[in-house]
Amino acid sequence: MKKKSNFSLLLGAAFLMATSAIGPGFLTQTTVFTEKLAASFGFVILISILIDIGAQLNIWRIIAISEKRAQDIANDVLPGLGYFLAILIVAGGLAFNIGNIAGAGLGTNVLFGISPEMGALFSGIVAVGIFLVKEAGRLMDKFAQILGLLMIILTVYVMFTANPPVGEAVTKTFAPDTIDFLAIITLVGGTVGGYITFAGGHRLLEAGITGKKALPEITKSSVSAIGIASIMRIFLFLAALGIVAQGFTLDPKNPPASVFQLAAGDIGYKMFGIVMWSAAVSSVVGAAYTSVSFIRTFSPLLEKYHKWLIVGFITISTLVFVIVGKPVAILILVGSLNGLILPIALGVMLIAAHKAKIVGDYKHPIWMTVFGVLIVVAMSYMGVYSLIQGIPQLFS
Questions:
Q1: Is 300 exposed, middle or buried (0-12, 13-18, 19+ CB in 10 A)?
Q2: From which domain of life does this come (predicted)?
């Protein structure tokens, strides 16, 4: 019975992380860069998957061994560092969640014709409702699994109707015409940047799946999470590539909607509404849960009322969207900035992995450390390069 229960929790953590990644920004970034890079975008996806796996393997493993949340690990590495990391994560999570709420409003607008603002309010209420029930963690896991599978199934259908040049995509994945650092940093930022990679790790910690004995299960769950997000990314890339290869131009106001509509007509457009709402509201849940998990350990009061902090986080995100709104460029920008948080967070975790006072007698695999350090260096370089060279182009 316990084994079955653990499997459910591990799968729930994987889907929580994956659906936290698959939000409106994920859909927008994938289609925008596919239109820009065509089949060569496959190389960007391949590199980002390798970086994602390396980062997540390290982070989830160290959280499990230390049996502490990331901010507490950071404070053990250097007093005050955990508070700094928490500020970065919560600020990034809030910015991302405004985009998530906006995407949910857009999804309901497509499906029912109501205003995005009204749709956002409805979606915010749904997300809040999940955290007000007694078994919030279990409901959150099931919610993420159902919506995650629904998104993948609908995107697969659209991919087949788009008839993409699969052979060219495979070839250019390994021999691209161009390499785009901004695309790589944005994809990594949108998949494991900021709060996202910690979503599943903190969920497993809360569920009590920790310690050396649990490492094989945790490894499978962490890689599965990246696999789920990557499958969705690949199917969406192929769907968009099929449309672009046919000579169609995507609507800059809503690139992913163009893909679904051009591939499958009005039915495709309604499918996009379902995918967008599912992606957005599941990301709202993941972002709120994980962001609050970074501050709840700082005082007994925050721990006691953490559910209400989550409710407040979702409420603020919703109200900001209703008042301000969000452009496509901001979603891509926030993805890039979240990518810059990753080398800081991963760097802290790697230092912690070699401190006996944090991990005891556990010995972190050398290859994981080397892999992690390479990711920190590469992401730092690409992140700074993208901010200096690439991001201003989004607003030109």
A1: exposed
A2: Bacteria
Question: pLDDT for 227-259, tens place per residue?
Answer: 999 999 999 999 999 999 999 988 888 889 999
CA-based nearest residue to 52, from 225, 217, 172: 225
- The string of DSSP codes covering 57-99 is HHHHHHHHHHTS-HHHHHHHHSTTHHHHHHHHHHHHHHHHHHH
CB 262 within 8 A of CB 243: yes
Q: What is the pLDDT of residues 337-349, one digit of tens each?
A: 666 788 888 999 9
Task: Note the helical H segments in the chain.
Answer: 2-21, 24-37, 41-66, 70-77, 81-112, 116-132, 136-162, 166-174, 181-192, 196-207, 215-245, 255-293, 300-304, 306-324, 328-352, 356-359, 366-385, 391-394
Please state the pTM of the whole predicted model. 0.85
Domains of the chain plus CATH, in order, are 10-394 (1.20.1740.10)
